[in-house]
Design goal:
Length: about 300
Amino acid sequence: MTMTQDPDESRLYPHLGDAARAVIDAGLEARIRFIKETHWIGYAQADLILARMKELLDAPRVDRPECLVILGDTNNGKTSILQRFANSQVRIERGDGSGSEWPVVTIQAPPVADEKRLYTAILHRVGGLGASLRTRSALFTATITTLSGIGTRMLVIDEIHHLISGSTNQHRICLNALKYLANELRLSIVVAGISDAHYSLGVIDPQLENRFKPMQLPRWIDGVNFRRLLASIEMILPLKKPSILQRPVMAKRLAILSDGKIGELLTILVAATVEAIRSGKECIDEGVITQIQDIAPAYRRRTLRDDL
Ligand SMILES: Nc1ncnc2c1ncn2[C@@H]1O[C@H](COP(=O)(O)OP(=O)(O)OP(=O)(O)O)[C@@H](O)[C@H]1O
Ligand SMILES: [Mg+2]
C-alpha cells in the first residue's frame, strides 16, 4: 500500500481525512479493502453517550451506582458505541504479578432470560469459568469473586432486550441478579437494547427504570446533524473527487434510502464508493446511487414505498 508522503497532497484532496488520504494513491483493490474495513465515525450523540459512560466509570464508588440504558433501533450504532468505549479502556497489568485489572467488562446478554447463563456469559468473558461451576450459587459466587478480583467497575451488557423483553419470573430473576451485582460490587451497569427496552425495565421493576437513565440513538432524519454525519463519512471514503454528500438533494435521498439507520447508510455508501472506484468516476453522484439501487432490491422498494 502506498503511503502518502507529500505534504501538498492535503491541498490536492481537501475533502479527505488523513486515513483516506494515506491510501488514495494506492491501487483499486487496496482502496476497496480500506473502505470495507470498519472506521469509526464520530457524531454528536455518540460523543455524548461515550462521555456519559466515562463519567460513570470515573464516578466515586457509591452504594447505588447510576446506570445507563442506550436505546435505538436495530442497525443504528449501539454495539459500535459500546465497542468504541471498551476499546478505549486499557487493561492495566498489576505490578505484583497478580494479573490485570479489568475495569470494563462487556458481554452480550444470553439469548433467553436465564440467570445461570447470565453469570456464565460474564465468567466466559473474563476467562473465569471453571468446569465445576454448574449450580446457580456456585456461578453467582464465582461472578462476584472474579469481578471483584479484577477490579471491574462497569459491566456493559449488549442486546439487553433478551433479558427484559417479557415479564416472566425469569426476567424478574435476571434483573434482580443485575441489581444485586451492581449493589454488591458497586459497579455501574450500562446496557444497550432496542427502543422499548426502557419501558420493559419499568414493567418488570419501576425502581430499575428509575436507576437506568435512558439515552437514545434516534433514527436519522435529514437535517443539520445528518448532513454533518454525511460530511464526516465523506472524509473516510477514498475517492479522488469530492462528492459533497451533504448537498440537499443527495442528503434527502440518502436519509430515505437508509431508513434513518447509520448501518444502512454505511452499507449504501460503501457500495457506492466501490462502484465509484471501479467505474473510474471517483465520486458518488446521483447516477452511482441509482446504480446501487438497481443492484439492491430492498433499497428500490424503500424508495418506491417512500414515494407513495
Ligand atoms: N459510529 C460508527 N462508525 C462506524 N461504523 C458504524 C458506526 N455506528 C454504526 N456503524 C456500523 O453500522 C452497522 C450497525 O451498527 P451496530 O452494529 O453498532 O448497530 P446496533 O444498533 O448495535 O444494531 P443491532 O440492534 O442490530 O445490534 C455496523 O456495521 C457498524 O460497523
Ligand atoms: Mg448491536
